[in-house]
Amino acid sequence: MANEYEGIKVEAAKSSMDMATVIGLIGGFGLVLSAIVMGGDPKSFINPPGVLIVIGGTLAITTMCFSISEVGQSVKVVMKTVLYTSRNPSNAAIQVLQIAEMARKQGVLSLQNILDTMQGEQLLHKGISMVVDGTPGEEVENILRRDIVATIQRHAKSTSILRRAAEFAPAMGLIGTLIGLVQMLGNLDDPSTIGPSMAVALLTTFYGAVLANMVFSPMASKLERNSAEETMINNIYLMGAASVGRQENPRRLEMLLNSILPPAKRIQYFD
Amino acid sequence: MANEYEGIKVEAAKSSMDMATVIGLIGGFGLVLSAIVMGGDPKSFINPPGVLIVIGGTLAITTMCFSISEVGQSVKVVMKTVLYTSRNPSNAAIQVLQIAEMARKQGVLSLQNILDTMQGEQLLHKGISMVVDGTPGEEVENILRRDIVATIQRHAKSTSILRRAAEFAPAMGLIGTLIGLVQMLGNLDDPSTIGPSMAVALLTTFYGAVLANMVFSPMASKLERNSAEETMINNIYLMGAASVGRQENPRRLEMLLNSILPPAKRIQYFD
Amino acid sequence: MANEYEGIKVEAAKSSMDMATVIGLIGGFGLVLSAIVMGGDPKSFINPPGVLIVIGGTLAITTMCFSISEVGQSVKVVMKTVLYTSRNPSNAAIQVLQIAEMARKQGVLSLQNILDTMQGEQLLHKGISMVVDGTPGEEVENILRRDIVATIQRHAKSTSILRRAAEFAPAMGLIGTLIGLVQMLGNLDDPSTIGPSMAVALLTTFYGAVLANMVFSPMASKLERNSAEETMINNIYLMGAASVGRQENPRRLEMLLNSILPPAKRIQYFD
Amino acid sequence: MANEYEGIKVEAAKSSMDMATVIGLIGGFGLVLSAIVMGGDPKSFINPPGVLIVIGGTLAITTMCFSISEVGQSVKVVMKTVLYTSRNPSNAAIQVLQIAEMARKQGVLSLQNILDTMQGEQLLHKGISMVVDGTPGEEVENILRRDIVATIQRHAKSTSILRRAAEFAPAMGLIGTLIGLVQMLGNLDDPSTIGPSMAVALLTTFYGAVLANMVFSPMASKLERNSAEETMINNIYLMGAASVGRQENPRRLEMLLNSILPPAKRIQYFD
Amino acid sequence: MANEYEGIKVEAAKSSMDMATVIGLIGGFGLVLSAIVMGGDPKSFINPPGVLIVIGGTLAITTMCFSISEVGQSVKVVMKTVLYTSRNPSNAAIQVLQIAEMARKQGVLSLQNILDTMQGEQLLHKGISMVVDGTPGEEVENILRRDIVATIQRHAKSTSILRRAAEFAPAMGLIGTLIGLVQMLGNLDDPSTIGPSMAVALLTTFYGAVLANMVFSPMASKLERNSAEETMINNIYLMGAASVGRQENPRRLEMLLNSILPPAKRIQYFD
Fold first, then answer.
1. Cβ neighbours of residue B241 under 8 Å, at least 6 residues apart?
2. What ipTM was predicted for this assembly?
3. I want to staple C54 with a disulfide (CB 3.0 to 4.6 A). Which of C207, D39, D95, D152 is the partner?
4. What is the number of alpha carbons within 13 Å of residue B228 lying toward its C-beta?
């Protein structure tokens, strides 16, 4: 597998959707919606002021805890999570080894030819570009490490914003329900309105529970998990680019890569 | 006990069921079921949409937090937990010492004859096979340690999936009940349906509480406990195989084994 | 106080009941029972299926989390807790110093005569017996330390079983109440039965709250506290036996003992 | 300020009440009581059996977790908390420096004359007394440090007892309410009694919430805060007495004191 | 940008309002208020005794946990939070570098001329003033560090007071609701008052939930976040003043500043 250097193609992880997230979201909401539809008129579950107070209120309080730009950024990060592609660390490690072997056998400048195929993997592309431009290995390593740390911090901030939102959503739901209950109890003249009023009051509790448990909380967990995986892939790219920059033996790189890969994902590129 | 070498038989831990888990499950569910049956018509506790929303919803959200393959793997791990046999670390240590003594007295190659009896204990079998094939002790140790770490990580991941499911099940139960309550409150025309509708609404809370407290949460605790026990047994096998591979004195092995055995399980094989 | 060597008598801590535990249990349950009796017919608080589902269910799930032998062992440990006698560490330290001084002045073998008076204190008895038999100080220390560690682990396991039970008892109470509510709501034909049915349904919640808050949780706290105290006493005995075995100066032993005694319990045996 | 040595007067912190605790208690209970009185007949909030079951039960269970003497001791500690006077660490540091300077200029024995003025500050009095009696500095330090550690442990024990009580009070309130509800539901014959019975049942929940949130929990927090403050003052006294005992330069003492004082409380006694 | 030394102007961070806090507060309360107004008569949500018991009670208990001056101080800190201006650490670092370069090229005394422009940034002003007055670099560093630590401690105390208040507010709300429920249940004679009485009883729960979730809890989070940001800015000022005081090369200062700036905020002032 290691001898078609001309034909090396760094396959960018396709940006297909993260199936677990999509299936989980569709499955969860599908079940809730079908329970609502089967039970009768679904319109009774739509209450625009309630939606506003729970979603808007949660957003307002969460923004209060952070800054507007931080909350805005976290929306982008969450979007990327839904579209995140789980990449195989073993494949990333093998591609990095192929690049390292090509650099060793055909010279670092030959990597220019395959730079385009790395477009999909920004960090790898940035690292190899710098190496091709003659940046020394240590500097490549420092710059990429800084990028990785910045990415981790951005993800950690977004995770904590989501966890906060998961705490505030049920609280706003409770506040909405209390408003509804107080209004209903002050108006008991017509008993026929008690039921529907109470149903409306409970809707905000329902919205809050759905938002917290079916959106914010699993999103935060998923983001944490994907951030760990992405950090590992990025560290593989960093090790590879730095190793090529330092013109080290690719066999040593393989050893280094195996030391950070999980046991089940270790590779054996050279025999 | 140490002189019938020809007759050494490594008794594989029989894959009988873990009695505590089985008794706990049967006992717990038996009590709940008998309370249901004694109270009247058990059919009123069966509500397929409710079952679907709680079990399906919990599965969907939990999947969202992880990846599909991780959730699938955890089902297998849980199955193995129910069938897990609590093995006695002392017995494992004594068997390992018998093997070590046999290797010392009759030569490593003689272990070939008893390899078959170790089929039930994969890790021991793998280690002794490598030793018989001439793999050096250090390498045997590295390979087995990697296997042990991978097993621990697999168990830890499964435990955290079960704990997550134990958090989401009651949340899905609450969401189901809120749906039922809103539907009931919107339809108070016929008072005779209030009771049964509310009963149905409460069923999802019931399902969620049963799933979380009688299945997911104890399963997670059990998995944690068994993982610790299995890790100890595996470390005993690792120590034994590595010691035979390094052709060490079995008395030294006994000392090493005693240092990781809990005080009550320490052995005295050589006098 | 240090000159009646012939008359040394190691007073075994009398196995009287732990008054705080007994008074707490009797006081707490007495108040609850009197509130029940004062409010009318106490029979309405007895519901055998409810008792079964809460106690049996909690037992079943807790067993599931551990193993049958661990749960059985914890029952014994809890029993010993109720009968536990709070011993004064200062007294234990002084007795140990008396023994050490006697050994120094009359020879180690003279301790044979007072061995019988130590029957009540197993660890001290075991340690001094070994010393009299000529076991070297280091070995006495190792063996006793192993015993102490085993005791601490046994207590820690029992504490965690009790804490688990304290979590599961209210959960089983809720499950029982939900069963009762669903049964009641499905049978609203005769309004006169609503009240009593609901009373019965609430009983399991009551049982669960009483079990968790008045039995399991305080028992776990008490066990933790007593385990710490017993460990200190046992360490005093270990230090004493090891010191006698090493034929050290008792004044040095006093210094060692004071270093582990709490400030308020420090002793001054030699002037 | 540093030249009227003859007139040094160690002002004992006046044992006035801790205003924050007193105002908080009076303010909180005042508001609750006025809400009760304004709403009608305050007698409906008095239910002796309920008071008994919540206060007595909480006391009984808390005692069960600890020992009788520990609970008794914590009552004393709590009493002292209410009467605690917040002392200014800066003032304590300056008084200690005045004493040190006086000892340096007029000799250690001259401190005899001002010993009486230190009566209010036990630890300082004990330390200076020992110094005047000729106890060496190291020993003074060891003895006072032991006293300080014992005080910290006593406070920590009392804090944990209060936190436990804050957990058990609402639990006992719930148990009392469940008893009341079961009794009421079993006796629905006369609908006119439902309201009052339910009111009585809710009273124990009310008592539990008030006890936990307005007494035990803030008391525990206050005790923790005051313990930290008292420890700092005591460390100032310890440093001072040890420094005088070692006949060190007071300027060095000032440096030491500033190293443990919070930034805003640092002093500049010598220019 | 680095050559108009005469024209250096240290732009004080404008004390405009923290938009995230203001928008969050207005947005959240706006949504709640509009839900109240849309649902009918907003007067039914105003209950002065309820407001008093929740706000006053929370204040009283929180004061009890701390001291009066600490609670008073935290009000000031919170006010400053609302008016806090998020400053850009990069800008602060560049201004500090401009000052350092000016001091290097035109002499430290020239900084006298731009001291006035630093009025808005107290710590920087204090540090540069000391440097101009000839205070050595080490002393400037020590004094400023002490100020920074004192600020951090003040913020941490205020944060913990807010978190406490966020815990006590719902508790006081529950206590208020229990008082209302007991009063209502004792007076069931006129059924037409049940609804409004219950509405009033629920109001305190509503007040408590709003106070805790929409004021205290997000304020505490915001304070924590802003305190971290302010500490970083203050450390930049400290490093700058100390560096000028030690007459170090500004290039070295740039390196130091970059080591504490987050990756995304690193600066490159010198090429």
1. B124, B127, B128, B130, B131, B140, B141, B144
2. 0.84
3. C207
4. 9
Q: Quick count: other Cβ atoms within 10 Å of Cβ C76?
A: 11
Q: Which of E36, E40, E221 sits opposite A187 (nearest CB)?
A: E40
Q: Report, as ranges of residue numbers, the positions in chain A whose pLDDT lies below 50.
A: 1-5, 14-15
Model confidence at E210, pLDDT cuts 50, 70, 90, reads very high
Where residue B262 falls among pLDDT bands split at 50, 70, 90? confident
SS3 D134: coil
On whether any CB of chain D is under 8 Å from the CB of C260, the answer is: no
Q: Give me Rg for the CA atoms of chain E.
A: 26
For residue C238, with 0-12 CB atoms within 10 Å meaning exposed, 13-18 middle and 19 or more buried, which class applies? buried
Give the 3-state secondary structure percentages of chain D, helix then strand then coil, rounded to 5. 80, 0, 20
C-alpha B223: how far from chain center: 4
Using the Cα atoms of residue E215, residue E220, residue E224 and residue E227 in order, give the sign of their dihedral. positive
How much is the average pLDDT of B64-83?
84
- In the numeric block, which tokens belong to residue C57? 């269910």
pLDDT category of residue E260 using cuts at 50, 70 and 90: confident
CB-CB under 8 Å, D60 with C24:
yes
Q: What percent of chain B has pLDDT over 90?
A: 42
Q: Which amino acid is at A69?
A: S
| Residue C230, both tokens | 């017993």
Angle between helices B122-132 and B137-185 (to 10 degrees): 160
How far is the C-alpha of B10 from the C-alpha of A271, rounded, in Å? 35
What sign results for the dihedral spanned by CA atoms A119, A121, A123, A129? Answer: negative
In this prediction, residue B271 has a pLDDT band, given cuts at 50, 70 and 90, of confident
Q: Residue A32, CB half-sphere, CA atoms under 13 Å: how many?
A: 26
CA-based nearest residue in chain D for residue E54: D31
Question: Does the pLDDT at position D113 exceed 90?
Answer: no
Question: Please, which chains are in contact with D (at least 3 CB pairs closer than 8 A)?
Answer: C, E
Give the integer Cα–Cα distance in Å for D102 and D2: 9
**DSSP classification of residue C121:** S
Question: pLDDT at position B30, please?
Answer: 94
CA-to-CA distance for B169 and B165, rounded, in angstroms?
6
The residue among B136, B99, B132, B133 whose CA lies nearest residue B10 is: B99
| Contact assignment for B56 to A27 by CB distance below 8 Å | yes
The predicted pLDDT at position A85 comes to 67
Query: From the centroid of its chain, how far is CA E199?
Result: 36
Burial of residue C29 (CB within 10 Å: 0-12, 13-18, 19+) is middle
Contact E58, E167 (CB under 8 A): no
The alpha carbon of residue C16 is apart from the nearest alpha carbon of chain D, in Å, by 14
CA distance A257 to A235: 9
Closest partner residue to B61 (CB to CB) among A24, A196, A202 is: A24
pLDDT classification of C116: cutoffs 50, 70, 90: confident
D23/E175 Cβ within 8 A = no
Whether the pLDDT of residue D156 is over 60: the answer is yes
- State the best of E18, E23, E31 to mutate against chain A, taking most chain A CBs within 10 Å: E31
Average pLDDT over residues D3-7: 47
Q: Residue type for C6, please? A: E
CA-CA distance, C118 to C123, in Å (whole number)?
9
Q: Which of A33, A27, A58, A21 is CA-nearest to residue A211?
A: A58
How far is residue A28 from each of residues A22, A211, C216, E216, measured CA to CA in Å? 10, 12, 37, 33
DSSP H helical ranges for chain E: 19-38, 48-51, 57-65, 68-82, 89-106, 122-132, 137-185, 194-210, 217-245, 250-260
In this structure, what token pair is assigned to residue C196?
Answer: 């009593």
